[in-house]
Design goal:
Blueprint (H helix, E strand, L loop, with lengths): L1 H22 L18 H4 L22 E7 L4 E4 L6 E13 H13 L1 H12 L4 H5 L1 H21 L8 E9 L1
Antiparallel strand pairs: 1-3, 2-3, 3-4
Helix pairs in contact: 4-6
């Protein structure tokens, strides 16, 4: 008896579902199959020539393409000094962000970690001339982080590395 009580309503639901999808054309529900047609055009199937595929984007376990990944390096040095044209002192901490394919992102951040002392030197060159307005206003901090990003990316290019720093964040700052 229980089997009949469960099977009859379930089969009724399936029948109504199938009939409704056969007679009602709707883009919002149903099974979606990609429209594929083979007319012999390899350019359509393989839009990128095989030799141009970046191997760092391929997952070694599955063979699928890896998505881009955000990765960051918090510079362990606390930058501090005297603000130009003022008697006030400042301190700030910086984090460098990159967005690259998963494996490349990890390798890039580990390379930055190994050369952190040189990166601290380059960031210090930018921060030497910080003014009070740069730290107290949002626009000033955006300009300062943009200058740090550009300066460090130029340094990385000079070292023969990919200039992959996409964003710089001031994660802590104090003005005394």
């Amino acid at each position: 008896m229980f089997l009949v009580q469960a099977a009859v309503p379930a089969s009724l639901v399936f029948i109504v579902f199938i009939v409704a999808h056969l007679f009602v054309e709707n883009e919002g529900s149903g099974i979606y199959l990609p429209e594929t047609s083979w007319d012999g055009d390899e350019e359509e199937v393989f839009p990128v020539p095989e030799e141009e595929i970046d191997l760092t984007r391929i997952d070694p376990e599955t063979g699928g393409l890896l998505p881009d990944k955000y990765n960051y390096l918090k510079v362990e040095n606390v930058f501090s000094g005297k603000i130009i044209g003022s008697e006030k002192l400042f301190s700030l901490e910086v984090a460098l962000l990159t967005k690259q394919p998963s494996i490349a992102s990890d390798l890039f951040i580990s390379a930055l970690f190994e050369m952190e002392a040189d990166i601290v030197k380059e960031i210090t060159n930018v921060i030497l001339e910080v003014e009070l307005g740069q730290l107290e206003s949002v626009d000033g901090r955006e300009k300062l982080t943009g200058d740090i990003r550009d300066y460090v990316n130029e340094y990385l290019e000079g070292e023969g590395m990919f200039p992959g720093i996409t964003e710089v964040f001031i994660i802590n700052y104090n003005v005394i």
